[in-house]
Write a structure and sequence with these properties.
heterodimer, A: 304 residues, Elongation Factor Tu (Ef-tu), domain 3, Rossmann fold, 2 domains, 7 helices, globular, B: 303 residues, alpha/beta, TIM Barrel, 8-stranded parallel beta barrel, 4-stranded antiparallel beta sheet, 16 strands, 20% strand, binds flavin-adenine dinucleotide, binds flavin mononucleotide, binds FE2/S2 (inorganic) cluster
Chain lengths: 304, 303
């Protein structure tokens, strides 16, 4: 089900329905965790995939919003039962989402996108900026062998270690740190104002961590684009594999509208606009053309 | 049993629920959500003679009860379409109406010829109304050019031809009549309404292309008006398009004069919407005592 780079992932059996909200709680400043009951979604989704969420029976906001999987929650018998999503209050939809009480129903469809590839990672280094931390709890759990995802459950080589480098504006925005620690993930923090952890950029933490690690590292990254671009450059300099999850604005999340495009390079170095919702959101960092980069030639497609 | 089949000129559809071009990908994208075999027809995303990268992002922006888009006809061109998408589409049950856009009359005609020669297309929709590419829209605003491009394509191929028109004109009925005179089997009304959105704090347009096309529930009254006015001006059938999301919307368009409807933006925010409409249509027709779709088309009573 999860393919990688260049092959669109169209779900064979996506789920679209009304999911009951089991809880919706604040976990950090302007940050909430919402739990949605949906066994079909919970049993299929893998780390790095996302779902679309919409407030039902209203035309404003009209479109669904993409939100990454945070955690899959089992029922009493251990079967996948619900999904957790962590969201930051940004605008029209998320500011209303925080008001939604337990028991209410939301319009949900997914799982969507490719997810992180289950490639070997002896030391998995997860680099997150702000709300970009959301895909990494499930990924860390999976690589540490604590939980399996997908139907049938996908096989992932167990890592020796998983580290989260997590940067935020200030300490009060740091969300879910105890969830990561409880999963056995080593956490390194950075804040812009130094209110917790390293004062400065989260990307400052990467090179020293990799230098000290006794194992080969693999980096995965999610966050604001400049931070992803910086991480990609560091990974390239250190010559270690790096995958990034892009959060381009989306209208449909299912490959139907062509609005979520990013510039992705092919083997010959030419770029083309690719839909992040079906060909991503996870891409190999070397293939992404970041905003301030020299563009080079567009591919076989005619230049306008 | 309510009769769902409809006739659009030479094109017969099993039912009037069709998906609009550019809002359903190439159908494969939707198979996880929708039993595409149940649709009346499928309109894949518009193709052009040569590949086009499309516009720089941001390509869409949500607005009140609608959205703006400036995708810019991002597609791999007709050759790639025929080799990569057509074999899949041709194997599906619904009619395949291939949407094409040319920069010139010659490009339209050439593509019509290529589709006629290839297997798989049941009809062609001429997108002479895309607001996101310079050149395209001229065919939809100038009645004389509209008639020439329709008749050129009609002569070049045996497939039924639909002309998709833009609402961004003063006298839509005139352009519609020109398309009818050119030999169109049916008209698709409407494409998006030209609009824009601004981020005043940064003094920037919200779309990479500055201007874009408005779609969704916000444009439904404009589309209904277009169908109503044009239905009174032409004899050929109409596909109604614009903001359709519920069975009430479908019925309103039929009563206003549409023989079939296309569902666009609603596929984005409700990927299974077409299945619900198909489930609900027979009951809605029965409520009007209709034995078939054609019994309600254009039955609006204006006091
Ligand atoms: C694959 C994917 C996974 C995501 N996962 C999460 C997640 O786990 N948790 C989370 O909180 N958010 C996540 N996001 C981002 C989330 O979709 C947006 O924050 C959300 O759509 C905002 O909706 P809104 O209606 O509240 O804001 P809007 O009213 O739509 O927007 C408010 C402002 O934010 C800007 N904006 C909206 N979306 C984005 C974006 N994606 N990037 C940059 N600027 C944007 C708009 O341009 C506008 O200026 C993800 C996005 C993608 C594509
Ligand atoms: C993202 C997007 C892409 C579109 N692309 C095309 C296209 O390629 N060709 C076309 O003829 N119409 C295109 N349209 C227009 C729709 O087919 C339809 O005419 C219009 O959106 C109005 O219907 P709606 O309100 O139901 O969406 C596009 C619309 C949207 C929103
Ligand atoms: S969001 Fe519609 S194609 Fe990706």
């Amino acid at each position: 089900m999860t393919s990688f780079q260049g092959t669109p992932t169209y779900p064979d059996h996506a789920w679209h329905g009304n999911a009951t909200v089991l809880e919706n709680v604040q976990i950090a400043r302007a940050t909430f965790r919402i739990r949605l009951a949906s066994p079909p979604l919970a049993e299929r989704i893998v780390p790095g995939q996302f779902l679309m969420l919409r407030l039902p029976r209203r035309d404003d906001p009209l479109l669904g919003r993409p939100l990454a999987l945070y955690a899959v929650v089992p029922d009493a018998s251990g079967r996948p039962h619900a999904v957790d999503v962590v969201y930051l209050i940004i605008g029209r939809m998320t500011s209303r989402l925080r008001e939604v009480p337990a028991g209410a129903k939301l319009d949900v469809w997914g799982p969507l996108g490719n997810g992180f590839p289950p490639d070997e990672a002896e030391h998995l280094v997860m680099v997150a900026g702000g709300i970009g931390q959301t895909p990494f709890l499930s990924l860390g759990r999976e690589f540490l062998g604590m939980q399996r995802y997908g139907k049938p459950p996908r096989a992932v080589p167990v890592a020796k270690k998983a580290t989260l480098c997590y940067g935020a504006r200030s300490a009060e925005f740091l969300a879910g740190v105890s969830d990561f620690e409880a999963a056995g993930i080593e956490v390194h923090l950075a804040t812009d104002d130094g209110s917790r952890g390293h004062r400065g950029l989260v990307t400052d933490l990467i090179a020293p961590l990799v230098a000290k690690s006794p194992w080969p590292c693999r980096i995965v990254c999610c966050g604001p684009e400049p931070m992803i671009a910086a991480t990609a450059r560091i990974a390239q300099r250190l010559a270690i594999p790096c995958q990034v999850s892009l959060e381009t604005p989306m209208a449909c999340g299912i490959g139907a509208c062509f609005s979520c495009v990013a510039r992705i390079r092919d083997e010959s170095g030419n770029w083309d606009y690719r839909r992040t919702c079906v060909e991503g959101p996870v891409f190999d960092a070397q293939h992404v053309v970041f905003d301030n980069e020299e563009l080079g030639a567009p591919s076989a497609r005619e230049a306008e | 049993m309510v009769q769902l089949a409809v006739q659009l000129g030479r094109l017969r559809l099993r039912n009037p629920i069709v998906v609009a071009s550019g809002t359903f990908g190439y159908a494969r994208e939707m198979t996880g959500f929708v039993d595409v075999g149940r649709l009346g027809a499928i309109l894949p995303k518009t193709i052009t003679r040569h590949p086009r990268p499309g516009n720089p992002p941001p390509r869409t922006c949500e607005t009140a009860a609608g959205m703006l888009n400036a995708i810019g006809l991002d597609n791999d061109g007709i050759d790639a379409f025929l080799t990569r998408q057509m074999p899949y589409l041709a194997g599906l049950e619904p009619a395949i109406i291939v949407s094409i856009a040319g920069r010139t009359e010659e490009e339209f005609v050439e593509m019509a010829r290529l589709l006629d020669a290839a297997d798989g297309a049941d009809a062609i929709e001429l997108n002479i109304s895309c607001p996101n590419v310079s050149g395209g829209v001229d065919f939809g605003t100038d009645p004389a050019r509209c008639e020439r491009v329709v008749s050129g394509c009609r002569k070049a191929c045996k497939l039924p031809i639909l002309a998709k028109l833009t609402p961004n004109v003063t006298d839509l009925a005139r352009v519609a009549k020109a398309a009818e005179n050119g030999g169109a089997d049916a008209l698709s009304l409407v494409n998006t309404c030209l609009g824009m959105a601004i981020d005043w704090r940064h003094r920037r347009p919200r779309l990479g292309n500055v201007l874009g096309g408005l779609s969704g529930p916000a444009i439904k009254p404009i589309a209904l008006r277009a169908v109503f006015q044009v239905a009174r001006a032409v004899a050929i059938p109409i596909m109604g398009i614009g903001g359709i999301a519920t069975i009430d919307d479908v019925m309103e368009f039929l009563v206003a004069g549409a023989t079939a409807v296309q569902i666009g933006t609603a596929n984005f925010y409700n990927p299974t919407v077409t299945m619900r409409l198909l489930d609900e249509l027979p009951e809605a027709l029965a409520q009007l005592g209709a034995a078939g779709v054609s019994d309600v088309v254009g039955t609006l009573e204006v006091p």
